Amino acid sequence: xxxxxxxxxxxxxxxxxxxxxxxxxxxxxxxxxxxxxxxxxxxxxxxxxxxxxxxxxxxxxxxxxxxxxxxxxxxxxxxxxxxxxxxxxxxxxxxxxxxxxxxxxxxxxxxxxxxxxxxxxxxxxxxxxxxxxxxxxxxxxxxxxxxxxxxxxxxxxxxxxxxxxxxxxxxxxxxxxxxxxxxxxxxxxxxxxxxxxxxxxxxxxxxxxxxxxxxxxxxxxxxxxxxxx
Length: 229
What we know:
Blueprint: H1 3-10, E1 15-17, H2 30-41, E2 51-53, E3 65-70, H3 79-90, E4 94-99, H4 107-119, E5 126-127, E6 155-159, E7 162-168, H5 192-212, H6 222-227
Parallel strand pairs: 1-2, 1-3, 3-4, 4-7
Antiparallel strand pairs: 5-6, 6-7
């Protein structure tokens, strides 16, 4: 492992999936701003820039967190890519998907569900309950938010107690993006700036869950501590 790969393991890296067709980079400024907020709000050490990753990238397995987004339909993954995605998820990776269009049943939403069903045919996205660890991993989050609120809940695909895929239909990263003059690119509707703040809190919680899993389900965190003794 090269020194830069070892450093990436020690620090949180916002890895984003680059895929053919569609529009994988819907909010180019969003990741850097979100990374800075993670660093500001928490004690997590972070990589300052996002990492663009493909499913065939030899460094895919160096990144346990992978974000994928878009508005439109995209080219179906090859069988080799599907198998790598399945292996990466089963090996402990956390995939966070974000529909930037907010159009259930069309565009990115339909394409992502199609490809996930190919990769994980025996598991399905299901509504995450209000008491899921994601909603209390760092902030106590009672309202799901993004640049818009298409759905009042997140969906997830859970494997042996671990939610390995987290799906937001609410354009989460859209709430973080600014233009070159520092202005917000998108308004947050219908809740305005309070909704934007909640989106940041939810984003931080998702990252904390990806890093720490379900350790907060136990009030005194005993299982989490035992794993590290």
